[in-house]
Amino acid sequence: MGKIRIGIFGFGKTGKVVANEFLQDSLFTLVWVVRKGDTDHQKYASRLLGHEFDAGEIFSADDIDDSFFRERPVDALVDFSDSTGVYLYAKAAQAGIPIISAISQYEQEELEILKSYAEFAPVLYSPNITLGINVLMVAAQILQKIAPHADIEIVEEHFKGKKEVSGTAKRIANVLSLNVEEHLNSIRVGGIVGRHEIIFGMPNQTIRLSHESISRAAFGQGAIFAVNFLIGKSPGMYTMETIIAEMFRQNIPVY
User: Fold this and answer.
1) Cα 15 from Cα 12, distance rounded (Å)
2) pLDDT digits (tens, 9 = 90+) for 96-133
3) Most C-beta atoms within 10 A of its C-beta, which of 11, 55, 88, 243?
4) Is domain 4-125+217-250 annotated with CATH 3.30.450.40?
């Protein structure tokens, strides 16, 4: 079986790390990278990331035309650009190419466009595609059902430069039906990439579920996990949470 061919949208701080994870995995070949501007146009992502081979030719958004995806075929498309990237790969979706979107937040119109692609191709959307954070969210929902009267608080810690409240923390609050203003606590200190903790307070005991991103490479590993799952799937919308939840169901220990 040949390698899985990957196309990536986005080559910022996270996009570069994600591209590098695919470059280092022997199961994949990085065919191209699309970025907004024409910086490093038609150079190779592999060379820019320190590798001694050519892979991941860099194109600008202006290079995307009706023939782009036909002339440069890939087996899956991974989007780490921004919310407007969804306008660029309609032709890929219509051709049935699996799409993995890791955009943190879409406007409603953009989200509807992404959902429309699921008529033609398998589409996986996860605002935080790290494996750990999705395991955390599924585990938290299970625990909430087991202990519905527990007090729950969410703590999100990030680097000093992050001004906005974590979108992932808001998502956790949403899946647990918690008011963001009342139950979400933010901390900004140096040296932290990103950490989320869910605290369940019960009489005489406390349960803490936590996840910490040590490196942006965790996003690349999550994207690799998502691609491996999505290849060969039928058209439709998928999420990391539903995948993890199904794995929980299949692996519950029997005593």
Assistant:
1) 5
2) 999 999 998 899 999 999 999 999 999 999 988 999 99
3) 11
4) no
Q: How far is CA 180 from the centre of its chain?
A: 22
The predicted model scores a pTM of 0.89
Set 16, 158, 170, 196: catalytic member: 158
Task: Report the CATH fold assignment for 131-213.
Answer: Dihydrodipicolinate Reductase; domain 2 (3.30.360)
> How many CB atoms are closer than 10 A to CB 112?
11
At residue 138's C-alpha, the angle toward residues 137 and 141, to 5°, is 85
pLDDT in tens, 12-62: 999 999 999 999 999 999 999 999 888 899 899 999 999 999 999 999 999
196 belongs to the catalytic site? no
Of 13, 91, 162, 170, the active-site residue reads 162
In single-letter form, the type of residue at position 51 comes to: H
DSSP character for 44?
Answer: B
- Residue 51: active-site member: no
Is the separation of the CB atoms in 38 and 64 below 8 Å? no
